Amino acid sequence: MDTERTYTLADLETEDFGGTPLAVLGYPVKHSVSPAMHNAAIAKLAAKNSRFGDWAYYRFEVKPEDLDEALPLFHRKSFLGLNLTVPHKVLAMDAIKGVSPDAERMGAVNTLVWDELGYDGFNTDGYGLKTGLEVDLGARMKGNHIILLGSGGAARAAAVQCVL
Hints:
This protein is of the alpha/beta class. The chain contains 7 helices and 7 strands; from the N terminus they run βαβαβαβαβαββαα. The protein has 2 domains: 6-123, 3-Layer(aba) Sandwich (Rossmann fold); 127-163, no CATH class. The chain has helices at residues 9-14, 34-48, 67-76, 88-91, 101-106, 125-137, 153-163; strands at residues 6-7, 20-26, 55-61, 81-84, 98-99, 111-115, 118-122. It has a 7-stranded mixed beta sheet, sandwiched between helices. α6 (125-137) crosses α7. The longest helix is centred in the N-terminal third of the chain and has 15 residues, at 34-48. The radius of gyration is 16 Å and the shape is globular.
């Protein structure tokens, strides 16, 4: 399978993604660099641990009105996990069975993991921002003035993380 291609729900129904597939869902999503970034990380992991040898990360364009019906399809096609981008981070909150406490506070999910009862949602955006600032820049959010640009799911997560 071509991990740089943008797939649709029709492709999900007709193609075999084999191995251990993962995906980012969005609309639009063609601009997402997630497949390149995650597949590079997977290749590094696979070089050290054969467990990751059949993992692959794909990009799917899913319209907002199709999200509810799409999620069970990804499970039936054995996708291990899903990442969500615009506009699904907020929309998915009502389409999944469970939401982590942090994601609940943030009002958005960007990571879905399946268990026997359905998808659980998590949000790693705020943690990623905090870790990037602290580790890469040596800066702390607490006690500093922060200006946030944006109003989507990632901005919500960033705003909540700033006050935690």
